[in-house]
Write a structure and sequence with these properties.
One of its GO terms (biological process) is fatty acid beta-oxidation using acyl-CoA dehydrogenase. This is Cytochrome b5 heme-binding domain-containing protein. One of its GO terms (cellular component) is cytoplasm. By secondary structure, this protein is α+β, with helices and mostly antiparallel strands. It is built from 41 helices and 40 strands. The strands form 10 sheets. Strands 19-20-22-24-26-25 form a 6-stranded mixed beta sheet. A 5-stranded mixed beta sheet has the order 1-5-4-3-2. β39 and β40 form a beta hairpin. α10 packs across α14 and α40 crosses α41. The longest helix has 37 residues. It is elongated.
Amino acid sequence: MAKTFNIEEVAKHTIDTDCWIIIHGKVYDVTNFLQDHPGGKKVLLKAAGTDASKQFDAFHNPSVLNKLAVKYEIGQIGSEDGVSPEEEIVEEESSNPLIVGETFGDMVPFGDPMWYQDWYSPYYNESHRKLRKFVRDFVEKEIMPFCHEWDEAKAIPNELFIKTAKAGFQGAIVGHVDAKLLPYALPANIDASEWDNFHSLIVTDELARCGSGGLLWALCGGLAIGLPPVLHFGSQYLKDKVVKDCLAGTKMICLAITEPSGGSDVANLQSEAKDMGDHYLLNGEKKWITNGVFADYFTVACRTGGPGFGGISFLLVERTMPGVWCMAFRILLGTAYVTFEDVKVPKENLIGKENKGFKYIMWNFNSERLGIVIQANRFARVCVEESIKYANKRETFGKKLIDHPVIRNKVAHMIRQVESTHAWMESLTYQSTKIPIHLLPLRLGGPIALCKAQATQTFEYCAREAAQIFGGLSYTRGGQGEKIERLYREVRAYAIPGGSEETYTIYYLEIMLDLGVSDLHISKFQPKGHTIHFLHFLQSALPVTKPEFVVVTGDLIDAKDKTRTTSKQYLEEWQVYRSAVEQGANDTTWYDMRGNHDCFDLTSWQAENNMYRTYGESAKLLDDGKGVYSWQVSKSFGDYNFVAVDTCPKKGPSRPFNFFGYLTTNTMNRLVSKIMPVKYNHTFLFSHYPTTTLLPGKSTEGYTFGDLADHFSVYFCGHLHRLVAGLGDVLKSYNSKTDSLELELSDMKDHGSYRIVAVDHDLISFVDVDLPIEQIPSALDGRIVPLTEKNKIIWPKKINPAPVILITNPKDSKYTMPTKEPLQNSRKSSHIRFLVFSEYESQNLDIKLFVDDKHHPFPAKFVGKENLPLWTSVWEPNDFDDFETHTLRIEATAPDGQIGISQVVFRMDNMRVKIQGGFGEWVIWSSLSKLTRFLSIFALLAMLTTMIAPKIYNDYERQQSGFTEKHSLRNKILYQIHQIDLGLNYSIWSGFQKHMYTWIHRFLQFPEEQPQVWNLCFLFLMSLFTLPWFRAEFIPSGKDQNQSTGLFYLWGLLFEKDQWIPMADTWLYAIFSLTFNVAIFILFFVWKSTSVHLLYCKGTEKEGKTSLLCDRIWFQSVVLVYWMWRMKEVSELATFYGGVWPTLILNLMFWWLIIVACLIIFGKNGIVTAIVSQRKHQDLQPVGVGLEICPACYDGSTDEQTTNQFFANTTENNQQDDAATHITILPLEEESRRLLMDEEAISSDNSSSGNGKTSLRRKVSKKD
């Protein structure tokens, strides 16, 4: 019996030569351990003589006491009756009145299955309870204390296999075994006749409680999957040869199916065994083989017949056979790469029948996967148990971790998943005991596979959440977080073996395809692009892609004349569109809508020339829905909503005033009803116009387009093509407020562009594709309209596009939507997934993968079907969970040498990557409609302000008492300019200041120097605000003037009978006109307002020819040429809208430009004036007349009397000025006097007034 001490005795041992502590009622003499303690001896001395249980539990696992502290134990704390305090606590706790049944284990909430913790279960009896205790005692004594040690050593002692075999575990693990083949009794001496699948479940579950996946795989993984084929299908010879030794722990066996070229794709395995008469000659490679490193036998799946399922057999290969070679992987214990080179396998080593191996594999998969389910779910439960224990002793912010709501929430979600998975697991186990054995693979194969995916995902979730709870301890080997660190590391070892999660979705493919096209511009006049591109798309791209449906987002026809100037609806273009779709779409579901070209020259939807009503594929849907229609796609993996909206104006003017789209209140109401009431996995919205060219209104309930964006995922549109000069190559944007994407598609017209969209596991991916334009000639035989008299399409010769690749996993991080997509699916995945569209068969394509520009080590495998060309490649996403951005590039080479390339950037931390679309992204992100309106109003207000403000100030200044023109603000500004010319107050900004002062003076001088021109400009600007700019025939197809003719206002178009059409096109036209037709010419007039002689000080040395640039003949000629260009632009309106009358004659801008031309020619210093002056040789102007308030401009003698008189006069004048208006120049007078006196002292020998004057100027010019 252990020696007992009381607390007072222990408290006497508190020095470094005699140090005792108490831990959980036991007394330890740690004197000799002080120097070896990892935290230093002061930590132990601080707790010396006291109960250190709390401090110990905070930093150590209980196993430390069992393994290390036992040698320092000297006794225990005891009371007078011999019962320790801890025993009293246990006795108290055991009397919980809520517990009415039998309990087992530590009773950590949900740390064990519910039937351990006083819950009733129909599945278990007394033999199960007996087995449970037996296995737990063994694990806690023989396995759990040593897991970390074995994991670090990457080795398990051989005696453990013997011990577990003698305990009967090997026999229990492999399922039902003939008693004659069992070397030892089953665990707990349970009779074989009593043994059922729940006994096997308990053994596996309790073994997994050790929290080491590596140990479990090494101890029973290889045996549990490698021996059953021999047990169930092997000959008696093989059973006698193998079974007893393996169950006794003296021999090891493993299953060898997975190959470097493929894992779950068993039907396509490559290892081959040729029949050589009395033996098979085996060649091949196997990868990730559990227990392969130390296995004595290999159960090898190989090909003995033809391709596919029917040519596979099982062979038992012995390690001692020549040609067998193994290499260990640095992952789980014992996992190996196995090579077979000309291995001679005797015929008697054939397991079962030749070419029936696939059946045996499928049979074996159920037990293998169910074993993984049991282990993975127990590991998840270990995470729950460890988290609850740790959270109950760890304290932060003054309370236990478990008392924080966020931690309780994490634990609750962990429990929810573990318990639901365990219930499913028990249900499947029960079914396996009732369903006839020959039906098990068929009836339970799918559910067990899905449960395996559920269990491993639960394991992954719990491991991650436990790691968050443990913090830094969760990635530190050993210590309190030992199990969590190890389990988190081993998650993938359970998600991938037995068939990865994606393997099951190969049979339930969570991928949906659709295809988008925009801006067809079918034309009866254009031989290149346009129609011919669309026909090639239908003939060469659509049959290869095979989408579920096609959506065309407007501009179906071009509607332009041969010169591409005017617009009109042409019947032939619509006939070509309808016939091409009917004859070339191959029964593909087709949706379309109108674009601005489709509504050129339309008075209304009911207009006779609205040919979309007759020839549009979705015209009836659009008509019935009053501009909005939708369709839904339901899959086994979710429901998806697709909404199309016609955003064309209700009246469609001819070009160019038909660029912007509109969402009226009624249309917004219909959109709200289609998008917001029902929740879908994803909603997609289609329209022609990007939001930047869209004027959205509000619904009657106040919903905006932004509110709609909260409920849809992607907005698909067209319209902008690619802008010009490559500025719009990336017309895509992301809205962080609504977590939605806007994706503009380039045009079919010029670039042959179309878009393939896929939804894979609810992740939306897309790729934009261009037809090979270089392969496409002009229109067929000069026939621009490829239509026969019977409306049959004349199809061009087929082209051969390169393979098209769409990567769906990992998703491109530039287009992720964190709140609307399950981005965690990529982190959980085991395969890269991508689609390859090609006219060639999959086996003829050469696929290469590059990750971060390095060859991906795992090959790609085709796992798709006819309408879904899906490829996969094994990967480990955790390798890229490093908070960095990575690239994945895939190349597909066709037999004709063409290469298709696709590349995405991805991250595993759910962070987005910027689209970096440059100007194109800015265009989509911004709102041109709002921007043009703002700029137009701003431009008008800015011009009016810069004209009116100087006029008002000049008038105000004159009304002040004592005002003299000499001291006006304009003269003061000129004085500042003169100072800069003289070099006074010089700084690096002097040049800028001079230009600033000069232009301020010009604006102040403009109403004074050119009052008629100022009045004209002011009246014109005011008229642009209030009056119509011009009258025109905007809709030539109108039956009368009421329908066709309208007035152009800055704010919109006004048709007869007060039909007001607010159009953003008017703002767009206005900003260009205001900038190039008005502002530039007003600035030109302002430029001329200040004469050149006012800008230069008379005291400088500038002499001779001086004139403003704007006054020179050559420059004014350039301005006149510019005027001609602007007049041409204005005159073109007559070409578009009804001729000279009324479009030009009743046009404000036209008459403005006429007046501008007159002013350029005959106005101030105009061309005529300049020519006349040149002929009279009057091109030499004086330096200046002198600014009265500028001393340096004084043109007189430099003798002292005259100079003194000059300063006296100047001073007298200054004294007469009002204090509020005069400019103080006394300092400058004194400076000038000093300069003059200094110069006279230096040049006393030269007393002539002329030299004195020159000296003054020279001296002043040198002042710097």
